[in-house]
Write a structure and sequence with these properties.
- This protein is an alpha+beta fold.
- The chain has two domains: 13-114, Phosphorylase Kinase, domain 1; 120-416, Aminoglycoside phosphotransferase (APH), C-terminal lobe (Aminoglycoside 3'-phosphotransferase, Chain: A, domain 2, Alpha-Beta Complex).
- It is 50% helix and 12% strand.
- The chain has helices spanning 13-17, 21-27, 79-93, 122-127, 135-149, 157-168, 171-180, 200-207, 210-225, 260-277, 288-315, 333-364, 370-373, 378-397, 405-417, and strands spanning 35-38, 45-51, 56-62, 65-66, 70-74, 101-105, 110-114, 120-121, 229-231, 240-242, 247-249, 256-258.
- A five-stranded antiparallel sheet has the order 1-2-3-7-6, with helices on both faces. A three-stranded antiparallel sheet has the order 8-10-11. It has a two-stranded antiparallel ribbon with strand order 4-5.
- Strand 4 and strand 5 (70-74) form a beta hairpin.
- Helix 10 (260-277) runs antiparallel to helix 11 (288-315).
- The chain is globular and about 60 Å long.
- The termini are far apart.
- 45% of the residues are buried.
- It binds 5-S-methyl-5-thio-alpha-D-ribofuranose and magnesium ion.
- Magnesium ion is lined by residues 42, 234, 239, 251.
Length: 421
């Protein structure tokens, strides 16, 4: 199925993809027996689950506009191309961490991929209070492997530069992040919304906060100018699918070359938001244990990331940066360790900034998180959001003075215990 783009529907999919060998071999050749459900609950795309006699698959198709807003906001179909190419690189760099890809049709902006039938979206699991034992390890490893191996620390520089050029064309999705994440939350942008009137005072305070605004723009500058590695680009808990024991990363359509700290910061921010939202999900009992679990997950994710990144630094540093000829080959392993400390401490400082900004945009901007949105009592929701906003401000503005994840988690616990807005 190639040719002029046409959006699929539940009704047209079996006919239009019935001849597609990649799909029919997986799920059964008789497309009249296929059942199709549209399950896309993200902001941008169509997602179909297609089931046949033999099995099931997912068909994800981009739309020429932002689904959340409608056709008044056009968005190029080529994001599907970037998603496909990011997925193939992530699979190579962190095997088993993404769904298997069966087919890609560039004209129709569609990807046919593995149906993760037992998995649910991580955000949903955290709202439900599920304490998943492996997410810190799995996500920490994924981030270290993809972010290290997509950079000039590892790649042949000619190949990295070719990839940099390839993904540099993902302009419109970067533009979404540049505006929605780094700028819109800090002024009265048209599409913004927040829990009102409860948060009005705090929102005005944050928008008048000179230090915060400057920091957000410094982070935007870093995001736009530091083409360090191939990012997932939208690594939040809605882009991760889990079972009790398995974790897969999905949806890298925002992939492009940016700072390592961006993916890590965005991810940790989503754990901290899950933490602050727990108070709003206590209908069936206390979430004390879930809160402790979530802080532990942030600490463990960062520890695993650091350990794996360090291991790759010592064993796979084959790129042109910090070349071994200057360090190990001269018997100077200590200098290589010193350089590693320097790189990791830069990632740490910047990830705190990106995390703080991500928290703000999910409460003040266009795209909110179900963690807070599903709290029906608006006063309770506002109390949870206010705590997260104050936490986000603190870690973004004071990031250079914060030296450990325990310090951040102690602050989160302290803010959580306060009762005032
Ligand atoms: C208009 S798109 C809004 C958000 O949805 C995506 O998942 C990204 O996070 C983006 O910022
Ligand atoms: Mg997405």
């Amino acid at each position: 199925m190639t040719g002029k783009f046409e959006a699929l529907s539940v009704e047209t999919l079996p006919k239009r993809l019935g001849e597609n060998a990649a799909l029919s071999e997986r799920i059964g050749k008789d497309s009249s027996r296929w059942t199709v459900r549209e399950v896309g609950d993200g902001n941008l795309n169509l997602v179909f689950i297609v089931e046949g006699d033999k099995g099931a698959a997912v068909v994800k198709q981009a739309l020429p506009y932002v689904r959340l807003v409608g056709d008044s906001w056009p968005l190029p179909l080529k994001r599907s191309f970037f998603e496909y190419h990011a997925l193939t690189r992530q699979e190579r760099r962190a095997p088993g961490s993404v769904p298997a890809i069966y087919h890609f049709d560039e004209d129709q902006a569609l990807i046919v991929m593995e149906y993760l039938s037992s998995h649910v979206i991580l955000r949903r699991a955290l709202i439900d209070g599920r304490e998943l034992p492996n997410i810190a390890r799995d996500i920490g490893l994924f981030m270290a492997r993809t972010l290290f191996r997509g950079s000039d620390l590892s790649m042949v520089t000619k190949e990295r530069k070719a990839d940099l050029a390839l993904f540099a064309d993902n302009v419109e999705l970067c533009d979404i992040t540049e505006n929605l994440v780094f700028s819109d939350p800090y002024f009265g942008a048209k599409m913004n919304r927040h829990t009102s009137p409860q948060l009005d005072g705090l929102v005005a305070e944050l928008r008048a906060d000179r230090d915060l605004k400057v920091e957000a723009q410094r982070l935007k500058h870093l995001f736009a100018a530091n083409a360090e590695t191939l990012l997932h680009g939208d690594l939040h808990s809605g882009s991760i699918m889990v079972t009790d024991t398995e974790t897969r990363m999905i949806d890298p359509e925002f992939a492009f070359y940016g700072p390592i700290a961006f993916d890590v910061g965005m991810l940790l921010a989503n754990f901290w938001m899950a933490f602050f939202s727990q108070r709003g999900h206590e209908e069936k009992g206390s979430r004390d244990s879930m809160r402790a679990y979530l802080l532990n997950v942030t600490a463990e994710t960062w520890a695993i990331f650091r350990a794996e990144f360090s291991q790759l630094w010592r064993t796979e540093r084959t790129g042109m940066l910090y070349h071994r000829s200057l360090f190990e080959d001269q018997g100077d392993r200590l200098a290589a360790e010193q350089a590693l400390d320097h790189v990791l401490s830069g990632i740490w400082t910047d990830l705190l900034g990106f995390a703080g900004i991500e928290v703000h945009r999910r409460i003040l901007g266009l795209a909110h998180n179900a963690d807070f949105e599903t709290i029906a009592d608006e006063n309770l929701r506002a109390r949870c959001e206010a705590k997260a906003l104050r936490f986000g401000r603190h870690i973004a503005v004071n990031r250079r003075q914060i030296h450990s994840i325990d310090e951040v988690n102690n602050l989160a616990a302290l803010i959580e215990q306060e009762s005032r807005i």
